[in-house]
Amino acid sequence: MIKIGDTLPQATLMEFSEVEGNGCSIGPNAVNTATATTGKTIALFALPGAFTPTCSAKHVPGYVESFSEFKAAGVDEIWCVSVNDAFVMGAWARDQKTQGKVRMLGDGSAAFTQATGLTLDLTSKGMGLRSNRYSMLIKDGKVVSLNVEGPGKFEVSDAATMLAQAKA
Q1: What contacts 40, CB < 8 A, 6 or more positions away?
Q2: Model-level pTM?
C-alpha cells in the first residue's frame, strides 16, 4: 500500500469535461498522474463509486464547498478519483456542480487504484473491484499525508481533515 513519502504511482486517469453553453464535449482526456502533479500541491480524495450515497451526499460536496479554503491553503487542484469511466465521472461532475473546483477523474480499469494498493473488492455486492475511500495530500508528486478509511467509514478522508493537513 502507498504510504507517506512515496511518489504517486504513474498512471493515466481519464477526465471528461464539457464546453459551457454549447454542449460540445471535450474528451475524454488522459491525465498522466506524474505530469499533472509535478510542481503542484494536489488534494486527492478517492471513493468507491460515482452517484453512491455517502460519496454524493457528503464526500464530494465537502470538497466543493471548501474549494476557496483549499486554494487559500496553497492547494493548486482538488481531484476526485473513482473506478468509473470518464463519462460517468463527467455526468457526476454536472450533478455535483464541481466545474472549476474539483477535477472528477475516472480510473476505469482500476490501474491507478491497484498501483496505490488501496483497492476495495465489492464483487459480492455486484460492483467489482473499486477504490477504498481515502484522501491524500500530494506535493510535487510525493504523498505528504494519507487518510485511509476503515470499512464502511467516513471519518478521516473528509474535506475538513484534508484542509487541516493542507494548512499545517
Answers
A1: 76, 77, 138, 139, 140
A2: 0.93
Contact 101, 67 (CB under 8 A): yes
Query: Which domain does 133 fall in, by range?
Result: 12-167
Q: Do the domain assignments include residue 27? A: yes
Within-domain flag for 2: no
Domain count, the chain: 1
Residue 167 has pLDDT above 60, yes or no: yes
Give the model confidence (pLDDT) of 30-44 as tens digits.
Answer: 999 999 999 999 999
* Active-site residue (options: 13, 43, 47, 55): 55
Query: Cis bond leading into 28, ω under 30°?
Result: yes
29-35 — which CB contacts under 8 Å span 24+ positions? 29/86, 31/103, 31/105, 33/8, 33/9, 33/112, 34/8, 34/10, 34/141
Q: Please say if 80 is a catalytic residue.
A: no
The answer to whether the beta carbons of residues 157 and 45 sit under 8 Å apart is yes
The grid coordinates of residue 39 equal 510542481
CATH classification of the domain holding 26: 3.40.30.10
